[in-house]
Amino acid sequence: MSMSVGKQLRRHRTGQMLVRLGAISFCLGVAGCIERTVSIDTEPRGATVFLNDEEVGQSPARVPFTWYGDYDIVIRKPGYETIQTHHNLKTPWYELPGIDLITECLIPFTVHDDRVLETFVLTPSVAVNKDTLLESAEELRSRAGAAR
Description:
single chain; 148 residues; alpha+beta; four-stranded antiparallel sheet; three-stranded mixed sheet; 7 strands
């Protein structure tokens, strides 16, 4: 029994479609991605680290980030002065528009972008003498009264 030409043509097209779908599925399955992390350390260790007002852990902290750009960093530890600063995570060349399509969708492996910031050195806080503080307050009060 021979198959009609129409049936053979439909089977051939169905086979081609399955091959194409398989190729697309394979490409999507092996497509790469970017893993971005930023590491923050302090001296002494164990300080609480905040990125953009969100607590991310104790130092040394290694956390994932989503976008490149400016990040506000706050570091706190009891007995030490609080550090408030910012850091600009610059976009690497492989994440520039156009190139990022290839990096994130077509490369069959994961690209790791690990950023290590400087080690932040915490300064011990100085206890203020109550009498000195009161004298300074009185002096400021007298200056404010004289300025009127």
